[in-house]
Structure formats: C-alpha cells, structure tokens
Amino acid sequence: MKMTWKNKQREKTSKRRFDLPFDHADDSITPTGSELPLFSRDLESQGNQFAEEGRYREALGKWETAISLTPERAVLHEQKAQVLLELGETWNALKAATRATELESGWAEAWITLGRSQLNFGEPDFAVQSFDRALAIKPDSGEARDDKQAALNLVKRRKQLHHSDQGRFLVEDYKV
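The chain above was modelled as a monomer; its predicted structure follows.
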C-alpha cells in the first residue's frame, strides 16, 4: 500500500504590521548637529552630579553618551578615566586617559590622570614620564609632584628588591 500526503496549499496571509509606539519615533527628541555640544555639556553636568554623589556607574553612563555625541572633548575622556579608576577598571581608565592626552596634549590634568592610571596598572616608570609631562605644562602642580614622588618611590623599591635578590646564596644539598 502506498501512502501519500495531501499537499494542500494554504492561503498565505500577509504578515500583519503591528503598530508599535517606537515605530513612529518623534525625531524632535534627537538633537540636531548644532545642539549636540549643548546636549553633551548637559550630559556632562549630570555625570558630574552623579560622580559627586558617588554614583559612578550612572556618571559613567552619562559621560559615555556625551562622548558618543562629541568624541573630541578631552574633558569627558579624562573624567571617564577618573571614574574608571574609582571602579577598579584600570585598563579602561588607561585607555580613556590616553585618549584625553591625545586630544589635548597641553592639559596637565589629563597627564596626571594618565600617570595615575599607569601607576595603578603597575607601570611606575611610565607614570613618572606622565607626571613629568604634567609638571612641564604646569610646574606648580602639587598633585603631579606628589604623585611623581610616589611613583619614584615605587621604582626605587622595585630596584632594591631586584638587587637584594642578586646577593642571596644558593643553598644546595651537601654530598659526602
């Protein structure tokens, strides 16, 4: 006995278009090109307020949105780096601080933040160089001077540990 299936053609119903609220997005909410810097500064001030309150994740969100609108503003990258340091995200802080110094190489605060990021990342030699750049720009910066001294102390301590390891004797089993 041979079995066959009935291939009945169903009527294809056209896919129903749903009327969702986000389908008709109001374009007036999105800032235009001339309003982007103002909107970015508003987001920056909201982020500053969150950071002052210790709400670092919210501040980071505001600043990242502002960076997406105006990526050429070094202050946003520098503030982002500071908050990332507070959150313990050293590698991301290092990247953000580096970007801030690339955008505005004559800004001492950006170099100080980069130096602190390098210090937290375990690179005191590079941190000393960054603090030197900050001091070259702003010689009276007490923060840069203090942080440079802390980095120099770490470099000195590392050298002492390295040299103390060379003066040790090797103990071997004595064979009779």
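Residues 30 and 36 are 9 Å apart (CA to CA).
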